[in-house]
Design brief:
By secondary structure, this protein is α/β, with parallel strands linked by helices. It has 12 helices and 15 strands. The strands form 3 sheets. A 6-stranded mixed beta sheet has the order 5-10-12-13-14-11.
Length: 384
């Protein structure tokens, strides 16, 4: 009887990385394997938005080897890890239980089939496309390296392993053109081809690939390590407005236009939010819908420019609501967690499809931490 290979924390990370590239995160974010040993075995996974007390309690009752969260368990640098300090209390408990943590945050927001896409599918939108194409903070670059043909594959392998060579749902993206490289090594050089003091002409390949802004250094280090030359020639070319696939938010069409109240009923049934706060016109026919999961009120202008009749997001502030109230596009605030949590079943699908029968994964779909309580009392505009 053949034994199944052991699945490790890093194996799960790789599976998630293929769908939600961790290098395509915002510069300010903290994602990846945040706690635990990457080589530790994984047989069971719990998936949640946050490492809340309820999630930690669930782990104590039903232990798991790995916790996968959307929001980073460790976000800002910790000066200490103690059970009585809020920012580090969850990390302390998880380390004590021996539970590793992978967090996939803005990389899961920006991926082509990320957070907003999962929400759009549940709502049944058609013709889905990014609201704002590109990663959360672009900075995408082209990485050009000149390498002997015999080592071109190894260099591309290294770039891809480090998080480069990805455009949207495609990996190992590159372009190659042949040419001749020349060099004259000094007396202290150790060239792979030829001898110091003699000018050499070598057949080379111009290998071009890409890297996200947050991953340029890692990709460059990996390319240097895989390159056979003592001093490889590497060009880093910023891509003006460059985007490596995916983007912020989604815009698409309802199967058929609906009055606003019926469109909001569809949102209620599909996303099951704890509550919906609406600003904008009360009577509106909704055909085109824009979505940004989590906090997305700042992208309302992009939704208007895309011709959206209804914009669904979370964490709308007072003055943003006032602006929406004066406009022609309805804005529905469904809360932060109510939208984002629909990426959690996608995390589970990725893990279970990659490791069928080897890893058990379960999801906790938590409600909004804020509860809606009827205010009662006076009506708007009346004096107390």
């Amino acid at each position: 009887m053949r034994r199944r290979p052991v699945v490790t924390v890093k194996d799960v990370w790789r599976a998630l990385d293929e769908r939600f590239p961790f290098s395509h995160c915002a510069e300010w974010d903290n994602v990846g394997i945040l706690l635990g040993d990457p080589a530790a075995p994984v047989r069971s996974v719990l998936i949640a938005l946050d490492a809340t007390p309820a999630v930690l309690g669930n782990l104590r009752r039903r232990p798991a080897d790995l916790l996968v969260t959307h929001h980073p368990v460790v976000f800002t640098p910790l000066k200490s890890i103690r059970p009585d300090r809020g920012p580090s209390a969850a990390a302390f408990s998880l380390l004590r239980m021996g539970v590793a943590v992978i967090s996939a945050h803005t990389n899961a927001d920006a991926a082509p089939r990320g957070v907003s896409h999962a929400m759009a599918l549940r709502l049944g939108l058609r013709g889905i496309r990014p609201l704002i194409p590109g990663e959360p903070s672009s900075g995408a670059c082209k990485v050009v390296v000149f390498v002997p043909p015999s080592h071109a594959e190894a260099v591309l392998d290294a770039a891809a392993e480090a998080g480069g060579a990805r455009i949207g749902g495609y990996t190992r993206c590159s372009f190659r053109s042949p040419g001749t490289g020349t060099f004259l090594g000094g007396p202290d050089s150790a060239p792979r081809y030829g001898k110091p003091g003699k000018e050499e002409r070598v057949e080379e390949v111009r290998l071009e690939t890409v890297a996200p802004g947050s991953g340029v250094q890692a990709v460059t280090r990996a390319v240097r390590k895989a390159h056979p030359y003592e001093e490889p020639a590497i060009d880093i070319v910023p891509l003006q407005g460059g985007a490596l696939g995916g983007g912020i938010g989604i815009v698409g069409e309802l199967p058929e236009p609906l009055p606003l109240d019926r469109a909001l009923d569809a949102v209620r049934r599909a996303l099951r939010p704890s509550w919906i706060h609406v600003a904008g016109p009360r009577r509106k026919r909704v055909g085109r819908v824009a979505i940004v999961g989590g906090s997305g009120a700042e992208f309302a202008d992009a939704a208007r420019e895309a011709g959206a009749d209804l914009y669904i997001t979370g964490d709308v502030k007072y003055h943003q609501a006032l602006e929406a109230a004066a406009g022609e596009m309805a804005v529905a605030d469904i809360g932060h967690a109510s939208g984002e949590r629909w990426i959690l079943p996608e995390f589970r699908r990725v893990i279970q499809s990659r490791f069928p029968g080897a890893v058990a994964a379960r999801v906790i779909m938590e409600e909004e931490p804020l509860r809606a309580v009827p205010a009662g009392g006076t009506r708007g505009g009346e004096k107390p």
